[in-house]
Write the structure tokens for this entry.
Amino acid sequence: MAQWERDERLARAFVELADTLQDGFFLVDFLHVLTEHMQELLNVTAIGVVMVDVQGRLVDMTASTGSARELEEAQIEFDEGPCKDACRHYERVGPVDLTLAAAAQRWPCFTPVARAAGFATAAAVPLRLREEAIGAVNLFDARPGALHPAALRLAQALADAATIGILHQRLSQDRAERLGQLQTALNSRILVEQAKGALGAHLRTDPEEAFARLRAHARTRRMPLTELCRLVLEGRLAAEEFAVPPDRQDL
């Protein structure tokens, strides 16, 4: 990516992460926007986002790959890992070289699962405002020594912008709406998972490829991902339209 393209993408990322007061805000779609910008700007293998629910528990919300989602679930199950530490201490975690013994000593259950999934580096940045953490972004890379400190500083800046956007949006709601927002997001996540499965089965491709095509088509149509998935499940958008990825349709 040329420097001017990177600067343009970075500016667009901060504008989109600040624009949360428009009608039709969906938390899962917003978190997908965050992960897409981070993945392109940081050139990282996989990204996932967890949020803190109203009872203080972590809930996996979105992930760029199936393996990243499995690692989010593993951290919640084992009560250890980069996102747990980021939420607990309100600070950046890592980058941690998962190939070293120190990683296994720090996270004895999480580290072997991450290594088995093909990752060599892990980090996390909190979604925080002062002493409040509302979630965390997991960053995973297959390359040892990846995710330099400068990359993590940029990740934290994007996470901070996203946190401010989410909190501004919450302030515009009443208490009942705030309590229901996370449940709505969880329902949306289920919708996305169902659409991935249905599309993958129809196209005879794996769920990650199906998810990549859903995201690409949503971006091309400038449509929220959850709305696109709903149309797929309702049969109002034919699976055949996803047979060719958008970036290859003009070839």
Summary: The CA atoms of residues 17 and 161 lie 6 Å apart. The beta strands are 46-52, 58-63, 93-97, 121-129, 132-141. The mean pLDDT is 82. Residues 175-203 form the longest helix (29 residues).
